[in-house]
Amino acid sequence: MNAKQGGSTVSYTVTEQVKVPRLSLILGYGPMLPFVLGAACAWTLPAQSSAVAVSLTSLWGGAILAFLAGVRRGLAFRSPGNETLPQFVTMLVLFVMALGALAAMPSRLSVAILAGGFASIAVMDRAAARREEAPPYFARLRPPQMLVAVVSLMALLPKA
Q1: 153, 118 Cβ separation under 8 angstroms
Q2: Which of 6, 54, 68, 156 is the most exposed place for a label (fewest CB within 10 A)?
Q3: 3-state DSSP assignment of residue 30
Q4: How far apart are the C-alpha atoms of 75 and 89, rounded to whole Å?
Q5: pLDDT-based confidence at 4, cuts 50/70/90?
Q6: Residue 21 DSSP code
Q7: How far apart are alpha carbons 90 and 79 in whole angstroms?
Q8: Which pTM was predicted?
Q9: Digit-coded pLDDT (tens) for 96-122
Q10: Could you give the residue ranges of the DSSP H alpha helices within the chain?
């Protein structure tokens, strides 16, 4: 890769794992556990507590979706020169979806926006990995990771 640094061009090589690193598995699936817990609580607790579970899970989802928008922005910094249009659009769409979900809380709309946002990450991060805009292991990590969030959020919809 070539990048400009202080008016000159610097070459460097980025080597990345194809296999999902252990820490990425922990840090990837760990934040998905509150979605599962929130859905389980929403279905097993009394109505008032169930509503709290939906709200807290939606709040968590908005925070994680905004965080993942930031991850996408950070990945753009590794691109030599300028970021690509897909990188910028992805970051912006995820961030706007996170804000929309948080603004619509607590509601079915909020949960639906979050489910759509996490489903889109499964698709967009896989494509980004193929375009070398994200680590190659994102192609394997993101679809099942985001499936946990999407299924949990879909389970919340009737309770929202």
Answers
A1: yes
A2: 6
A3: helix
A4: 13
A5: low
A6: P
A7: 15
A8: 0.89
A9: 999 999 999 999 999 999 999 999 999
A10: 22-29, 33-44, 47-76, 85-103, 108-130, 138-156
